Amino acid sequence: RRLYFDTHALVCLLEEKGFTTQQSEVIVSALVKIMNTNLDMIYKDMVTKVQQEIALQQVMSHIAGVKKDMIILEKSEFSALRAENEKIKLELQQIKKQVTDEITKVHADNKLNLNLEKSRVKELVTRHPVLPVSRLLFKEHHAQQDRALTQTDRKIDTEVADLKTMLESHKLDNIKYLAGSVFTCLTVALGFYRLWI
Fold this sequence. Notes:
There is one protein chain. By secondary structure, the chain is an all-alpha fold. Among the domains are: 1-46, Single alpha-helices involved in coiled-coils or other helix-helix interfaces (Up-down Bundle), CATH 1.20.5.340; 135-196. It contains four helices and no strands. The protein has helices spanning 7-16, 21-45, 49-127, 132-196. Helix 1 packs across helix 2 and helix 3 (49-127) runs antiparallel to helix 4 (132-196). The radius of gyration is 47 Å and the shape is rod-shaped.
């Protein structure tokens, strides 16, 4: 262990200041012991360059392993998210097609019923002469048909609005899922970036 001062020069300096040779040597010996004790305390908390390099290599290999795991996780997570997204898109397209088919069917049924009713009324009018009382009954019957048609139109509008609401909720769920996926990927990427730095 090296001492960073000249002990003999310190003994000589103490002798010049009035200490005896024996006193000077005792003082210098005590200083050397104090310094050695302090250095022992300091060396306990220190590591050698070799130990530091070994620890650094271990940390770097651990980081490389984590990096590989994160890349594998990221790829599998993205592929799972893509598959789920495609599945949701297909379901939405099927629902949209079903809604369109249902609306077309309801419209066609209503038109058919209305045309049948009109033809039946025309046939009745041509078979029987229309009397004033019959005209009144005919008008009432026509008003009832208009009310029934209006109610049917309202039901159709209500069903269409319900289906649109359902589609919007599915879209919103899809957007929420995608946003969560993006934030998850960003978190993974930031964690990876943080580990890398």
